[in-house]
Amino acid sequence: MTTVHGARQRARTEITTAIKEEARRQLAAGGAAKLSLRSVARELGMVSSALYRYFPSRDDLLTALIIDAFDAVGAAAEAAAASDPSDPSDPAGPLREGGPRRPEPTAPHGRQVARWVAVAAAVRAWAVAHPHEYALIYGSPVPGYTAPMDTVGPAARVGMVLIGIARDAHRTEGLALPPLPEPLKGEARRIAEDIAPELPPAVAAALVAAWAQLFGLISFEVFGQFNRLVEDGEVFFRHTARRIAAEVGLRGEPAARS
Amino acid sequence: MTTVHGARQRARTEITTAIKEEARRQLAAGGAAKLSLRSVARELGMVSSALYRYFPSRDDLLTALIIDAFDAVGAAAEAAAASDPSDPSDPAGPLREGGPRRPEPTAPHGRQVARWVAVAAAVRAWAVAHPHEYALIYGSPVPGYTAPMDTVGPAARVGMVLIGIARDAHRTEGLALPPLPEPLKGEARRIAEDIAPELPPAVAAALVAAWAQLFGLISFEVFGQFNRLVEDGEVFFRHTARRIAAEVGLRGEPAARS
DNA sequence: GTCTATACCCCGATAGAC
DNA sequence: GTCTATCGGGGTATAGAC
After folding, report:
1. I need a surface site. Which of A113, A142, B5, B136 has the fewest CB within 10 A?
2. Angstrom distance (rounded) from CA A117 to CA A237
3. Chain A residues closer than 8 Å to B258 by CB
4. Mutate to test the interface with B, among A213, A231, A258 (most CBs of B within 10 A)
5. Residue B179: closest CA among chain A residues belongs to which residue?
6. Which residues have C-beta within 8 Å of that of residue B206, sequence separation ≥ 6?
């Protein structure tokens, strides 16, 4: 009985996976707006009504895809943060999808900067490799669709990784930024309370700005706004990510800066 | 006869305008993907086939909307650049769209920084006021639609304004940035040739990055990624725009530089 | 859990009368 | 330039047999 149940469960999750895979294919072909249960079913050799046993509505399928995408990019970011890019023998992390993790042979000073850049580069690499899933989660909101609460956890993962790096840097080296102008102080204090009470408010606020700026670069590349202006996206991006790291107070070795 | 012709022309442009207005309304309601000639016609009390006298296809209507949007945000940027935000008596430009006017402190030195911030704030204000048109031009690409060449001119206007500010600053004060790391030098040289041969390559490359970073902030706000983290978007944005200005070598008065 | 059938919507685009 | 009519597609979602 549990066997039967197990087998059924297995079949169910297999089909669910197949549906999501086909849906992702269609996402790539036509965008989120014209993802349709019917054509997914058609392509899978099913009839449309059968899909409703797996996803009660089109929006639920969309939600599943969104959560998967946030989880994928979040996992890539976490893997990059866990690997140590300052170790030349470490092949993992920034350039891989989901690299293996390695021990940490400690770099002297700019280790957190290197991790920051590695995380940013990993997010970019994922985005470039999965432009349509990236568009799904960081592009224009899908009209008529409002994300349920289930998405906020996965959506926060990349941000958490960046916050963690800042936290580590603050603990080991101390992060400091020049004082904020008056009108921003309240805002920064609130942001710090929300995301990282142990960080100085100015750092927390800079983190949020840096986060948005990193994704701005990625979006411009993925969405084609650079329009041939930038040729080697990775090199350009890594350099800019390093400069952005400085904006939150992370200091690299002076030699490597800029 | 010319009168008749003139009247006809007038009627034609009036109807064309009405169509675009209704289309923009629908853009707001359902996004670019479900903008349809049929429903525009319905709402206008016309029959769908009549619209084909004005726009030969749905994509042509979309192109018109895109060009209008690029022109609108470009015009806002140009107006902000032309006004002088360091003159407290100048009511024009940056803050006009909404929001309190807080004249930038007069500064003979940081004038280009003030212009930079004013332009950025004007773009943000336009985006916040017209989120759907913003999404049309800076969000995920519309699936199945490829922009014709007619859009590239209008699309470049905001960038041109930013380049112009950097150029002015370079002419009057000289812009300099630390030397670039080797792998970026070629890229930067090419970028400079493309957009502003008279600027140092490092500045040109930083300009492109800054451009993307500004729009990253705007997109996060407009697309709701900040999700209540940032409360006063304008204050937060102006401050960050000022920091980004420093990244391209624009120097404000040290006092105001957070 | 899958099937057929169905209700009830939507769309872009064109032909041809007026 | 606007109309009716039409071609030929598309979609979500449900009911009910098997």
Report:
1. B5
2. 9
3. 177-181, 184
4. A213
5. A258
6. B177, B247, B248, B249
A58 touches strand D (CB under 7 A): yes
> Is the CB of A258 less than 8 angstroms away from the CB of B142?
no
Residue B112 and residue B108: Cα distance in Å, rounded? Answer: 9
In whole angstroms, what is the distance from residue B152 CA to residue A128 CA? 23
Question: CA–CA separation, A106 vs A172, rounded Å?
Answer: 12
Encoding tokens for residue B197? 């041969």
Q: Tell me, what amino acid is at A68?
A: D
Q: What is the DSSP secondary-structure string of A11-61?
A: HHHHHHHHHHHHHHHHHHHH-GGG--HHHHHHHTT--HHHHTTT-SSHHHH
> How confident is the model over B165-211, as pLDDT tens digits?
999 999 998 999 999 999 999 999 999 999 999 999 999 999 999 99
Q: Which residues of A touch B212 (CB under 8 A)?
A: 216-217, 219-221, 225-226
Q: Which residues of chain A have pLDDT under 70?
A: 1-5, 84-109, 253-258
Q: Which class for B75: exposed (0-12), middle (13-18), buried (19 or more C-beta within 10 A)?
A: middle
Structure tokens at A124: 């970019």
pTM: 0.90
